[in-house]
Design brief:
Layout (H helix, E strand, L loop, with lengths): L1 H23 L2 H27 L1 E6 L6 E3 L3 E10 L5 E12 L4 E11 L3 E10 L4 E12 L8 E4 L3 E7 L10 H6 L1 E4 L10 E8 L11 H7 L3 E7 L2 E8 L5 H20 L3 E8 L4 E7 L2 H11 L12 H7 L5 E7 L4 E7 L2
Parallel strand pairs: 2-9, 13-14, 13-16
Antiparallel strand pairs: 1-3, 3-6, 4-5, 4-7, 7-8, 7-9, 10-13, 11-12, 14-15, 16-17
Helix pairs in contact: 1-2
């Protein structure tokens, strides 16, 4: 309807300008009439040129840390780049803002000008209410020509993401005796990513050695495959298993409690084996955590998992899958708050 009214108004302007020229025979009105007739064609042609060359990019802001905490703001920047002489005073970018981990998605539309041979940047702050990975995707841009008769749409595929970790900054109060009860002596694990052994020596590759034991940098220097010969060692660890419940509010409490617990233990030089049930693999993810950076990476990887409804889903498989674990700390929710209990797996 907007474009029909605009067209009718434009025709009325041309009509009255034509009447003025008919009665006055003025060169001025003749020039204006010619410009009014040619302007829509030139405007539409420039708009087609602009649609072909316009580029939209989305960037995630970096403030010295790759992660943002819940309750803080994640900053994104939308850059509109135009290397032509065709401007637009009204371009609308359709954005999708999603958090696939908690299965939330919204769409927003922002209006921006398109400068002649220039870059226009828009700051988009988003408050991180829940953990996960916030992704801002540019779906399309709708460009109006200067006259406003023929809007054109161009599909886009630019996106940027920011990982949201649980809140930080407070300490976990716990009974040390309970923590000690959850410790276990564990030998070298055969699961990927949990190598509890030390390097004893480096030797030449022997057929049958594991590829994961190859020392690639040294092999490249010597031009021959070298492997790290390891010796098994045991260490005291705390097994902590958290539930990935399909309820954003309850899940936020579980993840906050788990993150705080592991962080506190890492600061006290306690090794943690973090378990969570993977619905996709139908198996446990088992991650050894000794340092805070490993904790951050573990949570970032966790955000690609599928959530489930049963608040005891992870605990229900522990005895069958890991009978060697005698006890573990279990983190779930009672409906309002996160609950941390010591579970007997015997």
């Amino acid at each position: 309807m907007e474009y029909i009214l605009r067209l009718i108004g434009y025709i009325i302007i041309i009509f009255f300008n034509g009447l003025m020229y008919f009665f006055l025979h003025s060169h001025f009105y003749f020039t204006v009439l010619c410009l009014l007739v040619l302007a829509p064609f030139c405007s539409v042609a420039l708009n087609f040129w602009l649609r072909k060359n316009i580029e939209i990019d989305i960037l995630a802001a970096s403030a010295g840390d790759d992660y943002v905490r819940t309750g803080q703001e994640a900053y994104f920047y939308i850059e509109v780049m135009n290397n032509t002489f065709a401007p637009s005073l009204d371009a609308k970018i359709r954005l999708k803002i999603s958090n696939d981990f908690i299965e939330r998605e919204t769409e927003e539309t922002i209006a921006v000008p398109v400068r002649i041979r220039g870059v226009y940047r828009v700051e988009l702050p988003l408050r991180a209410e829940l953990p996960g990975i916030i992704t801002v995707s540019a779906l399309s841009v709708r460009i109006k020509d200067l006259v406003g008769f023929v809007p054109l749409t161009k599909k886009l595929d630019s996106k940027a993401s920011v990982t949201i970790l649980p809140q930080d900054g407070f300490r976990l109060n716990y009974d040390r005796n309970v923590i000690e009860s959850g410790m276990l002596e564990s030998e070298e694990s055969t699961k990927r990513g949990n190598d509890f052994s030390d390097v004893q020596e480096i030797r030449e590759y022997i057929p049958g050695d594991k590829l994961m034991s190859i020392h690639w940098k040294l092999s490249a220097k010597r031009d021959i495959l070298m492997v790290k010969d390891r010796v098994s060692m045991s260490d005291r660890q705390l097994v902590l298993m958290l539930e990935l419940i399909k309820d954003p509010i309850r899940l936020d409490g579980i993840l906050t409690a788990a993150y705080t617990a592991v962080k506190t233990l890492c600061e006290e030089h306690t090794t943690v084996r973090l378990f969570y049930w993977s619905m996709g693999r139908y198996d446990y993810e088992d991650v050894r955590i000794d340092y805070i950076e490993e904790l951050k990476n573990a949570f970032a990887k966790m955000y690609y998992e599928k959530l489930y409804l049963n608040p005891e889903e992870g605990a229900s498989h522990m005895r069958e899958v890991h009978p060697e674990i005698k006890s573990y700390m279990h983190i779930t929710s009672d409906g309002s708050d996160a609950v941390i209990t010591l579970r007997d797996n015997g």
